[in-house]
Design goal:
- The chain has about 300 residues and is α/β, with parallel strands linked by helices.
- It has eleven helices and twelve strands.
- The strands form four sheets. A five-stranded mixed β-sheet has the order 8-7-9-5-10, sandwiched between helices. Strands 3-12-4 form a three-stranded antiparallel β-sheet.
- It is elongated, with a radius of gyration of 21 Å.
- The two termini are about 30 Å apart.
Length: about 300
């Protein structure tokens, strides 16, 4: 049985569905391959509500979505990350405006999923368990050498130099790490960088003095994800399904549906109705039922995303 909040959310979305009851035409979706299962289930359920709608999906990868959306080859672009600055500039050059991005799911902690939240990792033998995110940000953005004492380490570790490891600055995870932890600041030249999270984790597993960031679902038993404090002297938050769904974890990432608005800022009615359905209780149940562990949004998050639809 739906809870009261879920019921109210469904009622709030009802006018959108009612206005779209006579929808006809084709919804073209181009984008993220790891959303194939989710999009297929959403398409099927939406088509049952709107028999006049047909679907064409090309889910080969996130990088294909922005250009297809800008050029009108897609009505919706399912994405595993936000538009990069390069993608956004290219979209503006073609479309003359910004896309509308709607979050529909939290990232996954399942190792089989391609999109995980960011996490800050240390070697498993490192005694540190928690860190202030603002200190982590300072280390990743300022010249070294930095000492482990800056993170609260004591004893022999305190005087040792921190070896920074992370993802290349132009990767989606690095861009989202930057936006969440130190917007407007560049990564330190002291950071050793890789293009894949698994390579970051492999290095940290062999270097006990490393401090890194990478996708949480790429961790291993040879490394540890630190609990993070968004503000000093507040409880640290560890990455978990509960902390992601509650919005408490500060380095969360999401799955997105992007749409191209018209010159008046309006989204095409079929795209608007489809995204509204993905945010409905039934749509979010589909999001959470997939085999890859992507998590549905919380009620407040749904409200914020629905407001973007106008």
């Amino acid at each position: 049985m739906l809870g009261r909040r879920a019921l109210l959310a469904g009622l709030a979305l009802a006018p959108l569905a009612a206005r779209a009851a006579d929808l006809h035409g084709e919804i073209d979706l181009v984008g993220y391959n790891d959303m194939t299962e989710m999009i297929a289930a959403l398409d099927s359920a939406f088509a049952n509500l709107h028999p006049g709608i047909r679907f064409r999906t090309e889910l080969q990868g996130t990088r294909f979505g922005p250009a297809a959306l800008a050029e009108g080859r897609a009505l919706i672009a399912p994405m595993g990350a936000v538009f990069t600055p390069v993608q956004l500039a290219a979209f503006r050059a073609v479309a003359g405006r910004d896309p509308v991005g709607i979050r529909i799911a939290h990232a996954s902690l399942n190792p089989k999923a391609l999109s995980g939240p960011n996490a800050v990792f240390v070697h498993r033998d490192n005694p540190l368990r928690e860190a202030d995110l603002n200190v982590v940000a300072r280390l990743f953005t300022s010249p070294g050498p930095h000492r482990w004492s800056a993170l609260g380490a004591a004893g022999d570790l305190a005087g040792e130099a921190v070896r920074l490891v992370g993802l290349s600055a132009d990767t989606p995870l690095a861009l989202e790490m930057q936006a969440a932890a130190f917007p407007g600041l560049a990564f330190s030249a002291d950071m050793r960088s890789f293009h894949q999270s698994r390579d970051v984790i492999a290095l940290v597993a062999t270097e006990p003095l490393s401090l890194s960031f990478a996708a949480a679902n790429r961790g291993s038993d040879r490394v540890r994800a630190l609990g993070l404090r968004s503000r000093p002297r507040t409880p640290a938050v560890y990455v978990s399904e509960a902390s992601l769904r509650s919005g408490a974890y500060p380095l969360d990432r999401h799955l997105w549906l992007y749409a191209r608005p018209d010159s008046n800022g309006r989204i095409d009615p079929p795209a608007r109705a489809y995204i509204a359905f993905a945010l409905s209780p039934r749509g979010q149940a589909i999001v959470g039922a997939g085999s890859l562990g992507y998590l549905p949004l919380g009620h407040r998050e749904i409200g914020r995303e629905r407001a973007k639809l106008g």
